[in-house]
Structures are given as structure tokens and as C-alpha cells.
Specification:
The protein has helices at 2-10, 17-24, 28-36, 54-68, 73-124, 127-130, and strands spanning 15-16, 43-44, 50-52. With 133 residues, it is mainly α. The protein has a three-stranded antiparallel β-sheet with strand order 1-3-2. The protein is elongated. It starts with a helix and ends with a helix. Residues 14-82 form the HTH merR-type domain. Residues 86-113 form a coiled coil. This is Helix-turn-helix transcriptional regulator.
Length: 133
């Protein structure tokens, strides 16, 4: 639950374009270009003002890091796409691990119940039958 709240907080739109640009260390026009190319998608107010979240700022910082290493925007787009896919797979894997744990717990519960039932059946047998091989 805390993870979900953290994610919601990180995605809450907080910064107008001028503040976001300053935090990310770029010009506001750069943010508009990044939006056009699909690198970042700020939320919009009812008045159509761009609003950036902390997650957007972190993404912009990553974009700046990659471009400063000489990666062009097409490469950055590809890297971010792959990172998004990897994050999705990690989430799916976490969900599958949780499901396996729940199923293992259920199997253990059923095995325990069957063992108890077998013991009850044995104890209900007449003593003479219990001694038979």
C-alpha cells in the first residue's frame, strides 16, 4: 500500500513548465520539444497549463544524463521504451511471485487438513483394525 501511495505522490502534478524546466536544468522550449517527441507527457489543468510531477522531473533528469553522454533523442526514446517494458515485466514478475506464494500456502493448508483428516479417520477405527498391517 505504501508503494502505491509513493507512486501516487511521485505522479502528482506540482510544477508549471518554468519551474519544471529550472528543476530539470533545461529551457522551457526543450520541455515542449520533449513533449512533442513523446519523451514526457505532463498533465494539463482545465486551462491547458502543463503541470509536471516529480516523476516527470526525474525522467527529464535521466533524459539530460543520456543526452549529455552523447545519445541522440531517438536513442533516448528507445532506452526509455525498453526501461518501461522492463518495469512492466518486473511488476508482472512480482505479481506472479505473490500468486505462487499464495498457492503454496493454500497447498500447505490443504495438505495439513488432509493429514489431520487421515489421523481422525484412523483414531475413529476400532483398535483391532488399527493393528492390521
Amino acid at each position: 500500500m505504501a508503494d502505491r501511495n509513493d507512486r501516487n505522490d511521485r505522479n502528482r502534478p506540482l510544477y508549471m513548465i518554468s519551474v519544471a524546466a529550472q528543476l530539470a536544468g533545461v529551457h522551457p522550449q526543450t520541455l515542449r520539444t520533449y513533449e512533442q517527441k513523446g519523451l514526457v507527457t505532463p498533465q494539463r489543468t482545465s486551462g491547458n497549463t502543463r503541470m509536471y510531477s516529480q516523476a516527470d522531473i526525474e525522467r527529464l533528469e535521466l533524459i539530460n544524463e543520456l543526452t549529455s553522454e552523447g545519445i541522440n533523442l531517438a536513442g533516448v526514446i528507445r532506452i526509455l521504451d525498453l526501461q518501461g517494458r522492463l518495469d512492466e515485466r518486473d511488476s508482472e514478475l512480482d505479481d506472479l511471485h505473490k500468486r505462487v506464494r499464495r498457492l503454496a500456502d493454500r497447498v500447505h493448508e490443504l495438505e495439513t487438513r488432509e493429514s489431520v483428516n487421515a489421523l481422525v479417520r484412523i483414531s475413529d477405527m476400532p483398535t483391532a483394525l488399527r493393528r492390521l498391517p
